[in-house]
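Below sits the subject:

***
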Amino acid sequence: MRIDKWLWAARFFKTRAVASRACELGRIECNGQPVKPSREIRPGDRLRVRTEGGTYELNVLGLSEMRGPAAVAQTLYAETEESKQARQQLAEQRKLTPRIEALHEGKISKRDRRRFNWIRGKA
């Protein structure tokens, strides 16, 4: 089965086109190597999937040609414990960081923009 089709069926991406694009950009690795969208995937393969939600380390358990309910999609893979912990830590960090956009009303002055960029680490 093609990896882009599996990523779509496992609900990591909303469309197959987005899954294919992620493969082309090198955001998907299979057994430690970047893959093309047409790469064949088998149960037992180890994947690293980088999405906006974080980085997932997965073991492929099953294959599905169809995109089904989320409960069925979760049976296609097993996420490693290290991956779960890393994503939880990242989520906690996001919660603790202040929302700078919400602190200011109106147009931001040049001085304030520079200060915000310095806080964010964008120099």
Q: What stands out?
A: The first strand starts at residue 28 and ends at 30. Helices lie at 3-9, 16-24, 70-73, 81-96, 100-103, 110-120. Residues 81-123 form one domain.
